[in-house]
Specification:
- The complex is a heterodimer of chains A (112) and B (115).
- In chain A, β6 and β7 form a beta hairpin.
- Chain A is globular.
- Helix content of chain A is 0%, strand content 46%.
- In chain A, the strands form two sheets. A five-stranded mixed β-sheet of chain A has the order 1-9-8-3-4, with no helix packed on it.
- Chain A has no helices and nine strands.
- Chain A has 112 residues and is mostly beta strands.
- Chain B has 115 residues and is mostly beta strands.
- Helix content of chain B is 0%, strand content 51%.
- Chain B contains no helices and eleven strands.
- Chain B is globular.
- Chain B starts with a strand and ends with a strand.
- The chains are: A mainly beta (112), B mainly beta (115).
- At the A-B interface, β3, β4 and β8 of A face β4, β5, β9 and β10 of B.
Chain lengths: 112, 115
């Protein structure tokens, strides 16, 4: 499975956009990019995923570069409740290798 | 409504005394995962079931076993807990059908303390 690299921590002011980068330079053609987050003492929560096109849902936007070697998760208007560890994961779509492996993640602190 | 339920939320066990953690799901998902998460670390995959097929991670100690008697339930058995096994244990499920790989749903976890 492709590895991911994320900054260990980031800060963001409440109400501003939070842009969380992820490097996955060894991603292969059959691997999706997934983002999860984990709020303190809770189980991880799915945010969004994509293959090569940019994606948007009610929680966030995902921008994937054309060469697919990096991506950015965007929280358009960060709130204090968005303080969490954000994990970028690449995951194959093969039937027999349905594993979800977490990297070290980015700890996002949203401040007032 | 909770879709992946882990019981109990907190478990205290004695050093060396077998302990079982349970997970149930109402999603009818094919895949169930068990993760171990120690303080300030990312979740670490221990094993997962794809239907009845058990998939162990290479570095999961033999002390950790799992059972999946039916689609809805999965158990994590720790045969002889050591102090180093104190952690949050997370259960997750996903549909696991191709094409594409759907999202995974996590339970709230069981925090295990070994005394």
């Amino acid at each position: 499975d492709a590895k991911t690299t994320q900054p260990p921590s980031m800060d963001c002011a409440e109400g501003r956009a939070a842009n969380l980068p992820c490097n996955h330079s060894t991603i292969s053609g059959n691997e999706y990019v997934y983002w999860y987050r984990q709020i303190h003492s809770q189980g991880p929560q799915y945010i969004i995923h994509g293959l090569k096109n940019n994606e948007t849902n009610e929680m966030a936007s995902l921008i994937i570069t054309e060469d697919r070697k990096s991506s950015t998760l965007i929280l358009p208007h960060a709130t204090l409740r968005d303080t969490a560890v954000y994990y970028c994961i690449v995951r194959p779509r093969s039937y027999n290798t349905d594993k979800l492996i977490f990297g070290t993640g980015t700890r996002l602190q949203v401040f007032p | 409504d909770a879709m992946v339920i882990q019981n109990p939320r907190y478990q205290v066990t004695q050093f060396g005394k077998p302990v079982t953690l349970s997970c149930s799901q109402t999603l009818n998902h094919n895949v169930m995962y068990w993760y171990q998460q120690k303080s300030s670390q990312a979740p670490k995959l221990l094993f997962h079931y794809y239907d009845k097929d058990f998939n162990n991670e290479a570095d999961t100690p033999d002390n950790f076993q799992s059972r999946r008697p039916n689609t809805s339930f999965c158990f994590l058995d720790i045969r002889s807990p050591g102090l180093g096994d104190a952690a949050m244990y997370l259960c997750a499920t996903s549909r696991g059908t191709s094409p594409g790989v759907p999202e995974a749903f996590f339970g709230q976890g069981t925090r295990l303390t070994v005394v």
